């Protein structure tokens, strides 16, 4: 019923638009569909008219740079000259008539509006891109209203998306060049296919990157519901107009996609973003060592305790802090649930790194609360505090209060946002330590929290200023304290692969000016090398000349949930001054698993379990993960007989020779499988007892290393890092970013 009323309303509005545009007495600035001479558009002094065929257009504009099928049963064409001059976009129907025309070239003229004109807000059949002054700089118009455009486009969604995206990339680069950006993007077939497979599951690359902690691979530009007229007119300018405001990162492909929001296919999302090619790397599972399994289990226990403890709090404070006057200053007291939950959160990170857990100290927490409150008081009253760890004692402050502020043997002071788990936010921020100490310094906040010899910790927080106080000692036999840690790096820790990495050596090894670092993902065999004598533009290196700390970064490094990474330091010196090397592994995993049903998919449902496919043709296999609320919906397809039939990343099958082939769909999360038997035949009435071509035996290749599930974002939105803790997280909204 919902679909029926939507179609009825759509048709009524479309008919109304036709009636309005045909009544000359109504004063609305919509020009006629075609002028007297049939002009549609003029680009570079060359005019295209409504009666022209494509061969007539080619005589003026030359051969098109790109030709694809169009969902109007004709073709789509992109023309342009040097530096994207004389840019023309056309689509034709099955009779070769022009149904769509547009341009992004300065000076174009159309029978409606022309380049540089101010455009009124009335609806027209097409897409108009305007600058900040409301002036037209790009356009796509249609020669008539097409009530079945939405239906046409979605009947073969994958192929129509693919063709539209190819033209959108060309148009994007033209607009990008027009606005002075230096880097062009490109269409990547594999990337598109991955996006199309996710779209079959009502998901997208953005959500996939979040669920696998590869957010650094995807820069989202637009994520929104398709508007009413876009149902009728999916077109490349809908994506390409963002090129005016975004420059493509060097080497990135661009991901465009229309995809259904649900099973009914009534609503569609428009997704657009830049994608790092590292996302496309092939992936195999790598077994965890027994020690890594033990560390992961211990880390998850502490993290689960943190989630349960913080979520059980009745109030954030037992006693609220007050800093209105020095006479009545009150440090306050965090609730035990918040304070202990924060300590368990830190301990989840520490035990994953093979470090001893810290013991919660209520006294240190009360002292930390006093220091947080006093620091805020000084700031609010503009009292100079050049050494925050040793602040001035203002007149009227009691000796007892000041001594509480100065207790402990180690201390972090860190600003934090006002969220329900803000003390935990301060811990993840301090571990990241990208504020305050500078990009290449010693990361003092980080190493206070990771120091293997501290024994006690207390935490305080005013929702503006956090304080961590540490004291006591315990024995330790670690050889390094690194970030990412040796052992387990939990995704909820706030670790950013593109941020500053560090390694503190406790085994008498020392870095030098020649120390090189090699990071290898054992799942994909991808390597990154940082050589201080040959640094790339996106790399940084620093070492503490008087000590044993090394820090470095490479913003192209990508981590993925379930990944195992080998970090190797060459050209170190040992206690005797001899050159040596050191290597360790880190496993990137989620500490929070969630409920049992969220761990892995329960099944993969195929739209067919067997099919006859004509020799030389293609077919599409749709595989859907169940239940639908699984976060990671990536599926890998494989054929056991590639001589008979091959399959790409989105399940499109190509029949090469007579015989049978099994197409297997495997979920990245959980290795759940389903199989479809493909029988390649000469005619569809052929029986199944034809001789089969034996499959070529190949070594089996597991597609995944992910073994758990969850949803964590590695961006600066800390609420996304704190999985399981109650925050203000929300799902994607109907907005343009």
UniProtKB/TrEMBL annotation:
Pfam families: Big_2, CAP. Residues 600-677 form the BIG2 domain. Residues 690-703 have a biased composition (Basic and acidic residues). Residues 686-737 are annotated as: Disordered. InterPro entries: Big_2 (IPR003343), CAP_dom (IPR014044), CAP_sf (IPR035940), Invasin/intimin_cell_adhesion (IPR008964). This is Bacterial Ig-like domain (Group 2). It comes from Anaerostipes hadrus. The lineage of its organism: Bacteria, Bacillati, Bacillota, Clostridia, Lachnospirales.
